[in-house]
Write a structure and sequence with these properties.
Blueprint: E1 17-19, E2 22-24, E3 31-32, H1 34-39, E4 44-45, E5 51-52, E6 57-60, E7 64-65, E8 72-73, E9 78-79, E10 83-84, E11 91-95, E12 99-103, E13 108-111
The chain binds zinc ion.
Length: 113
């Protein structure tokens, strides 16, 4: 890794160094995680703004065509054990009767299992 480390957000010192995922400032002792600082916590929300997490159960809120097949994931389909991933389709899951596929979080709604 040869990328330049960002300066300390507290005192603007340029002498920051990295330990594992943390950046540490030797001047003021501030420690922070550069990923969290830059983008904030990566939060995936469903269609109505609930924060989703791995293992949640959701229902599909509109009919979704399955890419490369004639199958359709019907509105109301319950999907258990979602996994959040990065990308355009930010939910990885297995649809009953269809198989593994990616969903967009804006087309699902969190439900209690
Ligand atoms: Zn500092």
């Amino acid at each position: 890794m040869t990328e330049t480390l960002p300066p300390c957000p507290e005192c603007a010192s340029e002498f920051t160094y990295q330990v594992d995922a943390l950046l540490i400032c030797p001047e003021c002792g501030h420690e922070w995680s550069p990923g969290a600082e830059a983008e904030g916590e990566a939060v995936v929300r469903d269609a109505v703004g609930n924060v989703l997490s791995d293992g949640d159960t959701v229902t599909v809120i509109k009919d979704l065509k399955v890419k490369g097949s004639s199958s359709v994931v019907k509105v109301g389909t319950k999907v258990r054990g979602i996994r959040l991933v990065e990308g355009d389709h930010d939910i990885d899951c297995k649809i009953p009767g269809i198989g593994p596929m990616g969903l967009k979080s804006q087309f699902v709604k969190q439900v209690s299992d």
